[in-house]
């Protein structure tokens, strides 16, 4: 069995969401660190507050304030959040931001953004976005 070798063309620290979105191998990207600059761009894209994001990420607000680059665990979560928001906005425009912040019967009477806290919720959101894109609302 061959040993896995990371893609050498990917930088050690992810800096720009624009350069990453649509990357063919998120597995490789998730093994890198993510910069505070990248996180700030995802905050802009998502419309989440810093406090909302800190509740989702596996770091404290003090750690966020102190550091400029974060571990692969944070990178993975940021990439998941970015994927949800980019797909939702691409499909439904800026109205998607309001949808993420309104209680939703199909998702168990919770605000969709609450589901960003774990990978099961992320999958459910991506599934729901796909269903809505195809007109399947129930």
Notable characteristics:
single chain, mainly alpha, three-stranded mixed sheet, globular, 3 strands, 138 residues, 8 helices, 5% strand, disordered N terminus
Give the secondary structure arrangement, pairings included:
Elements: E1 13-14, H1 17-20, H2 26-29, E2 33-35, H3 36-46, H4 50-56, H5 61-66, E3 69-70, H6 72-92, H7 95-100, H8 119-133
Parallel strand pairs: 1-2
Antiparallel strand pairs: 2-3
Helix pairs in contact: 3-6, 6-8
Could you provide a short overview of the structure?
This protein has about 140 residues and is mostly helical. The chain contains eight helices and three strands, in the order βααβαααβααα. The protein has one domain (about 15-135).
Total strands: 3
> Averaging pLDDT over every residue, what do you get?
87
Q: Provide the helix percentage.
A: 40-55%
Structural class, judged by helices and strands? mainly alpha
Structure description:
The protein has 138 residues and is mainly alpha-helical. The chain has one domain (13-133). Helices cover 54% and strands 5% of the residues. The protein has eight helices and three strands; from the N terminus they run E-H-H-E-H-H-H-E-H-H-H. It has a three-stranded mixed β-sheet with strand order 1-2-3. The protein starts with 12 loop residues before the first strand and ends in a 5-residue tail after the last helix. The relative contact order is 0.12. The model is unreliable at 2-7 (pLDDT under 50).
């Amino acid at each position: 069995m061959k040993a896995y070798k990371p893609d050498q063309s990917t930088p050690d620290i992810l800096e720009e969401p624009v350069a990453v979105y649509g990357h063919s191998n998120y597995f490789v990207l998730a093994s890198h660190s993510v910069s505070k600059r990248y996180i700030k761009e995802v905050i802009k894209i998502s419309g989440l507050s810093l406090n909302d994001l800190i509740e989702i990420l596996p770091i404290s607000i003090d750690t966020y304030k102190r550091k400029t680059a974060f571990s692969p665990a944070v990178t993975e979560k940021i990439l998941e959040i970015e994927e949800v928001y980019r797909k939702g906005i691409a499909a439904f425009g800026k109205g998607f931001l309001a949808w993420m912040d309104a209680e939703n019967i199909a998702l168990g009477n919770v605000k969709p953004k609450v589901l960003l806290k774990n990978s099961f919720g992320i999958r459910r959101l991506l599934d729901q976005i796909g269903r809505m894109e195809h007109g399947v609302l129930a």
